[in-house]
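Bug report (template v2)

What were you trying to do?
Predict the complex of my protein with fe (ii) ion.

What happened?
Run completed; filing so the output is reviewed.

Input:
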Amino acid sequence: MISNKEIIELVEKQISSGLLQHVCQVAQTAEKMAVRFETDREKAFLAGILHDYAKERPEEELTAIAEENGLLDEIYRQVPFLLHAPVGAILIKKELGIEDEEILNAIGNHTLGRPSMGRLEKIIYLADMIEPGRDYPGVERLRNLCQCDLDQAMLAALDSTLGYCLQHKRMIHPQTINTRNYFLKLDKMKAKQSRKDQG
Ligand SMILES: [Fe+2]
Ligand SMILES: [Fe+2]
């Protein structure tokens, strides 16, 4: 099994310095969130370092790997950039021998999210959006939500992502909509439950 140090060295060789700074900040943010939400901090750090492993691969390569693995759909074909997440998970397994399903899912779903995401998946999705280098309207509110409730933070993060896509005329993958609806439903259920509990 390859060590974390060796993995970081391998990543350093493959990605640009700008991206390296981003992935290190995501890893540190994810590690802190893992401690707060009682998840494996080492896995969170590793998933953070590796989440954009395929981000700088050419679009043709992303599309070809996605096609080979039966991942390619209409939206991915039009926005191949989104594939850096699921293709990243495939490459990490193949090239680095990482087999941990939680880590692979967290990397594979960090662009679209998915309904019923696990805790590490939510942490990586959110850490990517709130790492200290991020600056956009609403990021402070999202940072605050990430301190107390991962599900509420996911709903806010997805609303923000969808709002950005609408505003900038970007294609929206249906999985992002399904994920947002899942967290909206969860939020409504929790609110209903807490009203019941209060009396
Ligand atoms: Fe990414
Ligand atoms: Fe990222």
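What did the reviewer find?
The chain has a mean pLDDT of 95. Residues 174-198 form the longest helix (25 residues).
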